[in-house]
Structures are given as structure tokens and as C-alpha cells.
Amino acid sequence: MRSTPGNNAHLAPEPDTRDAQRFPRLTDEMAERVAPYGEAEQVPAGTVLFERGQRGADFFFVLDGGIEIVDIDNDGHPRTVTTHTRHQFTGELDHFNQRMILVSGLTLVDSRLIRITRDNFRKLISGEPDIGEIIMRAFILRRVSIIQLGIGGVVLIGPGHGADTLRLQRFLVRNGYPHRLIDTDLDPKATGLLDTFDVEPHLFPVVVSPDHQMLMNPSTAELADRLGLTESLQPGYVHDVAVVGAGPAGLAAAVYAASEGLETIVIEGMAPGGQAGTSSKIENYLGFPTGISGQALAGRAQIQAQKFGARLAISRNVANLHCASQPYQLELDDGQRVTARAVVIATGARYRKLDVPNYERYEGQGIHYAATPMEGKLCAGEEVIVVGGGNSAGQAAVFLSRIAAHVHMLVRGIGLAATMSDYLIRRILQSPRITLHTETEIVGLEGGDRLQQVTWSGRRDGSSETRAVANVFVMVGAEPNTDWLHGCLALDAKGFVITGIDGEGVPTSVPFATSKPGIFAVGDVRSGSVKRVASGVGEGSVVIQAVHKFLNPEPD
């Protein structure tokens, strides 16, 4: 059985030196400070305090007694995950949002508890920073365990190399939702599952919840809705600022906006992190000397934004910006609308597609735009191709060289010096498992249901080579995600948002202002921006000063 890394089917006990941080016990003095934020209750044994699927569950602190945390296993039977006793507390990262919780909780014995509502929980986190730090660390570690052990998760059944299986798995992985993949091409148990669930192969992939409810090849939005990953939107509610896009720039804007008291909502079509979230490791980001994966960086930033009160609406893209009047309205692809007094556009850019016959046929079934451990498992021990000469392509090549038999790196130019950081160039040139092919491009893609063969050609001498390659990682160029603007803003010739101007095209003192007042653009989507994570974070944080000035203009 091929499973998502660490997503085990059972709660196998493993040595863990971090239990004291995952399930901390507060001191008597800390308990005294927690108490005023909630209400003390005497609760009889067997009382259900919260249930899987509930939104907005209260936070419970145990004074005396105990709370059992319960999960449902793959056979539909309850199992104990852990038990919180004196001066311990319930919850994990879903306490910072309105998503459906993954587990249930009930009192083991007659217990004395402090019940803290969601609003007061936020006050506790900000008002008692030392306690807040302990809780935050515990919540993060609990979510890691939930993912590793598949607690409260779903089973994804389908062919491991299938485009839709990969689409759903990528969504679950990038949103940190626990799951287990059963690869029907490799797992001998798959046949038995077909009989158990009475599912025909043509309906794959299938998502099965712990209560054996099934979704047959759902859309990303349908899956997010069923799992409770989406937040309900209030029609007509006017936010101070709407951030479109949850890449580094968008998340930075959300953190600074929410931390400064602005009612903030972030709208993201896939998952936090944007293009940077697909990077296996970012090594030149300030403060992380050993590097950090794009997904980990995005996950931390998401938690940080939610900690300050920002709301994150995922799995919905903005289809249209209604900019003729203020406040502005963002129309989502499902017809819902989000209203905001100010808008920060941080939709970034996407990699360009190659102009090669059969290209679309193999997208998702051999052609990838991300190189994470999930994609890496697809090409273990095989030759792979990375197309592109930027840092993302370099990081992908180095990462894949530890998994694949060999990495062929194809670039159209004469070298890498003009487009890639020196530390990556040196690693690529020194690696015996990476071959750099300059002035080279792919000219042929062949195979059956999956990509099986790739032909590339030298642009200078016309020579060609065909190899048995089933996975190609395309990371070339950048096309802005601005189709949804529909003429609202001034764009440059390549479609990037022009900033630093007013409605008349006159330069302004605000570098991130667009041609519409109250609409700003930051990060890769902005014309002339530096395509780096650090610059995107900087722009996202700095733009909030301009948002404040727009929302609260100084009197003349």
C-alpha cells in the first residue's frame, strides 16, 4: 500500500520525546490566569463536549477529572486518541478557524472544567502570551500527529498516477488534512475494497470518510465543502480588507492587517503558499539557515494570520472584481460575493505551459508543476526531467536527485547564471545525478494513459534524444493570474498589474497602488516585482500601511 508520508492506518505507538509539548500541563499559577477567560462547570461523566464535524467548538481546560478525545477508525469503531487530565486542555489548529473539527471529546469521570468560547479563547492567546505560546506549540504538534496517524482523516482510493487522484491528494496534503491513499494500481487490497464499497473502477478516485460516506471523483470545491474546510461567508458583510491569494505576499498582508485590527478575509483557490508552497526547500529565506519547505512556511504564516483573527476562504477562486463602485465586490466562482472596503491583489503567477504535441493529454499524468515529496514518490528510482532555469527549477532538481535515478535539467538558454542563485548552480553542477542540458527543449511526448517517453532536441545543432521518462517537471516563465480582473485595472503588456499610479495613470507616492483607489497589488502579480519569497513577504507587510491610510484618510 502506498500512503501519504506518515499517514498510517492505525495508531501505532511510537517513541515520542515531544509529548510534554504536545500535551502540556499548565502550572497552578497559569491555571489561575486561564480561569477568568471562561466559565467553570461541573460536568457529569460521559458528557459529550464536542463532536467531529462541529464548527466553532469551545476550548476546555481541565481543573479536575478528565476529557477523552475519540476518533473513528477505518472500520467505523471509536478509538481513544488521548486523555486530557488536570491542567491540560483540548483543541488543535481548527480552534483558529471555523472548519469542522476532526475528533470528539467527552468526560471520562465527573469533571470540573473551564469552558472558554472562541472569542474569549482569542483573548486568552493574546492577553497571556506565555500561555498562548504553549497552546500554539501544542496545537501545531497535535496537527502534525493527526496527519501522521491519519486521525479523523479520509481514505483516498484510486490509481496513484491518475490525474484526479493526484489532484485530490495534492489538495489534501497542501491543506494539512489527514488522509490515507490506497493506490489501486499497486495495492492488492484494492480489489477487496471494490467489493466492500461496491465501487466500479471507472468511478475512481473515491474519497471515503470514517463513517463510510463516499464521494466519487469530487471537484476540489466539493471535497472542501464535504470535509468542512471552507468557511461560511456572510452575504452583505463588509470586510475592511479582502486579500486575494494566499501566497507569501498575501499571507504577509493578512498577518499585518489582522494584527493591526482590520477585519480581514483571504480568498484562495487551492491552498496556502501559492507557487512558493510547492517548493521542496527554500534555503535563502532570512532566518532559516537550514532551509524550510514552502508548505511549512505557508502553514506557519496561515496559523499566524488566523491567530490574529484573519479568515481564510479556500477552494474558491475569484471570478470577477466588481470595481465600478465602493465598497468593492469580489464574485467567487460559485456565485458567492465578498464585499470589502479595500482589496489587496496577491494572486501571483503560474508557470507557462510548453508548446509541444500531447502536452495537455499528459498534464497531471506525467507533467507536473510542483516537486514535493508527494510527486517525488511517483518517480523513485526513475529518470526524470526538470524544465526551467530559475530557482524553483533548481530546487526541484536538487530535491529530485535524492529520489530519482537521474535528473535531466533542460534549459533554453546557454546557462543558469542569469536566472538562478549561485548556491543552487554549484549544487547542480557538482551533482553526479543531475545532467544540465543547455540550449535544449522538449519536442515530443508519447505514451498511453500515462506519459512514457520524452524526446528533446538541441536548439543549436538540431540533435535529438529520446528517453523513457514518465515524469516531467515544468517550471518555466511566469504568467500572471489576472484573468479575473476583466479590465478593472491597468495591466502591462504581459498582463501584470501596474502599480504606483492613480486612476489617470499619474505616478503616486504609494508603490503598491493600482489605477483604482483602495485596490493594491503585491508580490509576483505586480508588474516589475522581484520574483522572490522574501520580496513578496516584504511587499505584503508594507502595503497594509497604505491600506490604513486609504481606510482612514487624514483630514485636509
From TrEMBL:
The lineage of its organism: Bacteria, Pseudomonadati, Pseudomonadota, Gammaproteobacteria, Lysobacterales. The keyword Flavoprotein applies. InterPro entries: cNMP-bd_dom (IPR000595), cNMP-bd_dom_sf (IPR018490), FAD/NAD-bd_sf (IPR036188), FAD/NAD-binding_dom (IPR023753), Ferredoxin-NADP_redctase_2 (IPR050097), RmlC-like_jellyroll (IPR014710). The keyword Oxidoreductase applies. Keywords: Flavoprotein, Oxidoreductase. Residues 1-21 are annotated as: Disordered. It comes from Dyella koreensis. It is found in: Cytoplasm. SMART domains: cNMP. Residues 22-142 form the Cyclic nucleotide-binding domain. Pfam families: cNMP_binding, Pyr_redox_2. This is FAD-dependent oxidoreductase. PANTHER family: THIOREDOXIN REDUCTASE 1-RELATED-RELATED.
